[in-house]
Structures are given as structure tokens and as C-alpha cells.
């Protein structure tokens, strides 16, 4: 039942969001920042909102409505349904959101960030010690996300095919429950779900840290890009997040770790250790669209074509744009 319920969730998300999108009237044009309301997605918990508040950069001249999702894939579904204006995700969700050839969004900026806590974990007491040991096992993964991608790449490196495992697509919370309940042998996930799994005694058998590019994409609805005021607001918000993380790195890690710990339910010392490690590996900062970033996502899309998850090759350039570059450089 757990597996079937997880597969139904994505379809349910879209069904629930469609009336919400209509009610929001998100396509209305805005003439000034005061007229703008940005509907922005967050994964796991509202970390971007929290870091802005912590750095005293949440006093935006426009309104921001944050919504929490379990993954970037759900954020892109919400964008497609018209319920979000701006989504943050890894390279993978926009690929699947654009797979029908009719995306209503564009990738407008690239946020460079850490790739830690992207892992394949096994429950306490498991005899599996590496990826090769997953052959024939039930392995949960978060579909159409970084977890899907790095699990596939880890299997290849171990000399295994995707068909060598019994792959089970699960949302993070469902995957945690399945891992703890013994209905799967391993789970590929990210972020808070990996932290929680370790708190429950899970151990790591594979990591996506050196597989993932560290490119996390900001995707905006096409309607947002038709309004100068909305474009300026998006650029300003993304730049503020970069500045907020710079503030955290400037001697405020311990205090922000307390904010993280409160929201992720982990010890403050562990939250601080993770935060320092993440910012050391790859400081969180945004950059305009580049050819290199587009090429990186193309490699990811091609891997999913090879896997057979995408029916045909997708040209990712079709949903990237430089429309925000000038505004972003101005505020950075």
C-alpha cells in the first residue's frame, strides 16, 4: 500500500493545485514592486525564508508567499499548474517538467550549493555495506530528483544496472517509514530525510556528493518574465538569499545552526557541523545562466534518456533563458 500511495501523490498534488492556481490570479501584471506577490517554493522546510529573516534581509518591497514541498519535483508540478511563480530545485525536476515539450517556465538562475546529505542509506543492522550489495534488493528512491540520478550513477559505477535492483519510487517521508518498517532494504534521498534516517540508526552505503554538479536551479513561470516589476522582484529575492548566506558565513554559523536545528529536529552541534561542512564544500551563492550550467543539465537529461525514463532526447536549452541576467547582475 505504501508504494501505491506514494505513486498517487504526485497526481494528487496537481489536482489539488489547479483550483488554487486559478484563485490566485498569478498572471496578473504588476507595475511596481508594491504590486508584486511572488509565490515561491521551498523543499523540506522554509530554509530560504529563515535565512533571509536571520540576516535581516526579509524586508522586501514586494510580498513573498512561501510554500513547502517534499521535493523540487513537486515544486515544478506546482509551477506547471500555475500555483507557484518561482521554484528552486536540482537540475533534475525541470527536465521532467519539460518532457512533454510544452513547459510554461524558464530556468533563470543557478544557485551553487553543497551536495552533502545526498545519500543511499540502509537501516540499522543491515548487512549491506556498499552499492554492489544492493543487487536484488528493494531500494526506495525519490523519483525525478537528485536521488533518482545519483542512485542510477552509483549503480553504474558498481557494475550494476537499474534492473538489478527492485526500485521503488517513494516520497521522502514515505521512504523513511518504509526503511524503518523493513519494507525496503535501502533508500536514496536527500536533506532532512537523510538526517532523520541517520538519527534512526541508518548508515550510508553510497553518496551523491561527487556525482552531483552543485547546480541548483531557479525556475520562473513564463508569465513572471513578461513583467519588469516581477523580474526585478525575482532577481532581488534570489540575490538577497546569496547575501544572507554570506552573512551566515561571516561568523554567524553557530546562531543560524540553532534555527536549522529547531526546524530539522537535530542537535545544534550536528546542525552546525553540517552547515560548516556544506559552506566549506561549496558556498551558497547564485550566478546568472551560463553555457556550462546548461551543458551540465544536458548531461543529466541524457542520462535519463539512457535509463529509459525519458522517451526521447530533450534539448534543455529550450527552457533556459538569459532574461534575468541583467537584473541579477545589477542587484548582486
TrEMBL record:
Residues 37-249 form the Solute-binding protein family 3/N-terminal domain. Keywords: Signal. InterPro entries: Solute-binding_3/MltF_N, SsuA/THI5. It holds the Pfam family NMT1. The keyword Plastid does not apply. It comes from the Bacteria. The keyword Nucleotide-binding does not apply. Belongs to the bacterial solute-binding protein SsuA/TauA family. This is ABC transporter substrate-binding protein. It comes from Streptomyces vulcanius.
